[in-house]
Specification:
eight-stranded mixed sheet, Rossmann fold, single chain, about 325 residues, alpha/beta
């Protein structure tokens, strides 16, 4: 069965959705700077194993609606997108897969819409407790010591203008730096003052790479050249809005069956450390497995697609 692309009205916005296969639903939520195309290696495999794989361009990305107000990317809006997607496709519940900020959203789904979530597969970003202070204040303190992209992204228009001026240059640098072969943590040696993201990200080697062809890379370049990066950056600018929502809706344990996959060389793992997985076990009693993929970096579903697909299918078969 070939992949099908369509526009789906989920309420406040339309989402461009790529789906493949039939059977129990698996919704794959990408992160920054991603697209539904970030799951190109998973869609046909999941379909071949009897699942209905569904990959949206998340709100703000690609062919989906791109609200200008960062507040529109709060949990009320982004959770509603997932519910609206299931409703539009006549799906009662699904396994949700998250990567990067997509994982942040997916961690919250069992609490916000428990009747729509059967299980979770989370990539790269472990669950963490909500901080006691506004995220923007934390970002600003870190940025006093060194360049910190989360702080840089908060300033309206600054990052948008820089990244949109050279989409191919930014995308190649950030994909490479965050990969298992990159040196993303080197950016922390640079000061915030006077630096943009392209100033601190290392140069990337010429394509193709073992896990990213020139044609696949062109899909990202074409999309972000057309849309710019504001929609994606708004997910980060919504951090304070989400924090305020959680003050009246404290985190609850995640009890649905949950699988966590990370790359051995993912900078997120290097920053938060293995202790984060130990802490996660306390807040995710449904955690059934943790898999660390050797030599892979942040984009583990692309860098180590065969390993990730095997692990995902084994887990999905267990919760079918």
């Amino acid at each position: 069965m070939t992949a099908v692309e369509r526009q789906v009205d989920v309420g406040d916005v339309e989402l461009r959705v790529v789906s493949q296969g039939a059977g129990p639903a698996v919704v794959l939520c990408h992160g920054f700077p991603g697209l539904a195309h970030s799951w190109r290696n998973q869609l046909p495999v999941l379909a071949a194993h009897g699942f209905r794989a569904i990959a949206p361009d998340m709100r703000g990305y690609g062919g989906s609606g791109r609200p200008e107000d960062p507040a529109a990317y709060n949990r009320r809006g982004t959770v509603a997108d997932m519910v609206g997607l299931l409703d539009a496709l006549d799906i009662e519940s699904a396994v949700f897969v998250g990567h990067d900020f997509g994982a942040d959203l997916v961690w919250d789904l069992p609490q916000w819409v428990p009747d729509r979530v059967r299980a979770l597969i989370q990539l790269a970003v472990p669950r963490s407790d909500t901080a006691p202070v506004l995220p923007s204040a934390v970002f600003a303190r870190v940025a006093q010591r060194h360049f910190f992209h989360l702080h840089y992204f908060q300033e309206p228009a600054t990052a948008d203008t820089e990244l949109a001026a050279d989409p191919a240059g930014f995308l190649s640098r950030v994909f490479w730096a965050l990969s298992g072969k990159g040196r993303y943590l080197d950016i922390f040696r640079q000061p915030s003052k006077g630096n943009g993201y392209l100033d601190v990200l290392p140069e990337a080697p010429a394509l193709p790479w073992p896990w990213l062809s020139a044609d696949d890379f062109a899909v990202y370049v074409d999309a972000f050249t057309r849309t710019g990066f504001t929609g994606g950056l708004n997910w980060y600018r919504a951090a304070d809005h989400i924090w305020r929502e959680k003050q009246t809706r404290p985190d609850e344990p995640v009890t649905v069956p949950t699988l966590f996959i990370t790359g051995e060389r993912d900078p997120v793992r290097q920053i938060v450390g293995d202790a984060s997985v130990t802490q996660m076990r306390a807040t995710v009693p449904g955690l059934t497995g943790v898999h660390v993929i050797p030599e892979a970096g942040h984009f583990v579903q692309m860098e180590a697609a065969d390993d990730v697909n095997r692990i995902m299918v084994e887990f999905l078969d267990s919760v079918r």
